[in-house]
Amino acid sequence: MVEFLVVVAIISLLLGLLLPAVHIARERARETVCKNNVYQINFSVVQFVEVHKKLPRAGRAGKIGGWVVDTLPFIEQKNLQSTIVWGSELARAPDSLNMPPAIFRCPRSTALDATPPDKMWRGHYTLVTDEDRRYLMGIYDSPIDLDIPWLTGPEMFYQRILKLTGPHHEGFYKSSGGQQGITFMINGKDVR
Fold first, then answer.
1. One digit per residue, pLDDT tens: the chain, 192 residues?
2. What is the gyration radius of the CA atoms in the chain, in angstroms?
3. I want to staple 56 with a disulfide (CB 3.0 to 4.6 A). Which of 5, 46, 70, 111 is the partner?
């Protein structure tokens, strides 16, 4: 009986050490997927700018459109773009558009959100520009409290996003304009 209790204690100890490691590994995997999405979306926006010599169109509240719809062909989603009617009422969007393609979903934000299946998901990534909307500052994780539907193209000015809280350790992953790589920003400062 004593031997059995010793074996159970050892197994319990090993499980106690293993479970936090599994949790950390899952969180790192979520962050890696998010970083890759930020990079790929930023790359698609840069490609759009190079081809069209202008920033993607801005979205309007309650309407389908914005940079998300404009850049769909640059992330191999031209078929999805062909099903979308630019400028139509968001409330009339088909249910098939409630959930964005995988590239527009951050696993960390998905874990934080509680979006019912019959409601449109909020945008997990935000296009950031200067105040005049003349320059692309990059693609950032959307702030936690930003509740803009993904299909309207969440967008904000650089000075505003500096004051908000991101989904990753209260910061944001971002890919800036035509620059290579991903950086992390917390409290308005880049952390390498």
1. 888 889 999 998 888 888 888 888 888 888 889 999 999 999 999 999 999 999 999 988 889 999 999 999 999 998 888 888 888 898 888 888 888 898 999 888 877 777 776 788 889 999 999 888 888 888 998 888 888 899 998 999 888 888 888 888 888 888 887 777 788 888 777 776
2. 20
3. 70
Q: Rounded CA gap, 89 and 125, in Å?
A: 21
- The C-alpha atoms of residue 101 and residue 173 are separated, in whole angstroms, by 19
Supply the DSSP symbol for 134: -
| 64 φ/ψ angles, rounded to the nearest 5 degrees | -80, 135
Question: What are the two backbone dihedrals, phi and then psi, of residue 102, each rounded to the nearest 5 degrees?
Answer: -55, -35
* Residues, the chain: 192
Are 188 and 162 within 8 A, CB to CB? yes
Helices marked H in the chain — which ranges? 2-52, 67-71, 78-82, 107-112, 158-161
Does this model's pTM top 0.70? My answer is: yes
CB atoms within 10 A of CB 106: 25
Report whether 137 contacts 177 (CB < 8 A): yes
